[in-house]
Amino acid sequence: MEPSQKNRRLQSLDALRGFDMLWIIGFEGMVHGMSQATGWPVMNWLSAELHHSPWNGFTIYDLIFPLFIFVSGVSMPFSFGKKLEGALINIKTVKNGIYRSLIKRTIILILLGMIVNKSQHILVYDQMRFASVLGRIALSCFFAALIYLNSGFRWQIFWFLIILFGYWALMEWVPVPGFGAGVLTPEGNLASYLDREYLPGKVLREVYDPEGLLSTIPAIGTALLGIFTGRFLRYSSPGLNHLKKSFIMICSGFFFLGIGLLWNNVFPINKNMWTSSFVIYTGGWSLLLLGLFYLIIDAWGLKKWSVFLVWIGTNSILIYLLSHGVFDFQYTSDFLFSGLINLSPERWHFFWLNSGILLMQLVFLRYLYKKKLFWKI
Fold this sequence. Notes:
Largest sheet: none
Distance between the termini: 35 Å
Oligomer: single chain
Number of domains: 1
Number of strands: 0
């Protein structure tokens, strides 16, 4: 019988969260720089994949956001479960404390998301963008947590299905003024219409916001899928060891990929609308990645290679904020390393500039990790 996962932090989960964030804190720029400098076909392909799909379709870059929400969902049964199992008689008091913490975290993330949006008219209502990446993370995880804390597993599955099929029904059958029902274009879909009509402030893409109102609902499904996975990882029995858990997650990942591709034929995989097929398809990739990380790190015990990812994963929100406008890493990298960068051919400058950006962030994150300084909301 393997050691219980109930009270042990999973390094594979922190590493996967760090791997997810790695792409948007500097490594993305290194890939683009390598593509420009070398012209290698594989780097050109990867560079092209590090852009969002214009509308329908899927790229590697489209996975970064839902993977983060999925990982956040996986962590909930670990963080909440430990508190609830230790509560025994005072479970209501413990739950009330969790609710207060959830509400506080949600409000703070929404406000931080508005700051990251970098509105030049921060005090002008109709020029402010209220929707944000951090706001969607906050809201999707908040409502998924409420479902987890207040319903049994069967009801959680029920809510998951209602969210995905209900969203599909709304998008297909509710008519949009001037377009009708089931028009899944940027202008004509129901989620875009509701963003234009009811989303406070301004929308990011003029006719819709990729982090808008209605499209946040299926993102709750992404978080719930992570919760189901976290429940599974916490479960221990004599016949279910690390290897079997890895195998089950990987097989489940392929299954979800297949279902997502089938659903794509009638409800396109689309990040901007966060379609139900997008939830299932990205859930498949998330399960595959977590299964592989869990296999390598927890089942095989190969942990040292992932330490730098853990540095990122344990302070993921902090480094996201710093790298998205709070601190100018690009200016600092150019100031510190321009002399060395200029020694290389000009076509390599962008690569080395972004290498400096990532190096500075890793040094900073390593310092925080060694000092056990973790910024939690």
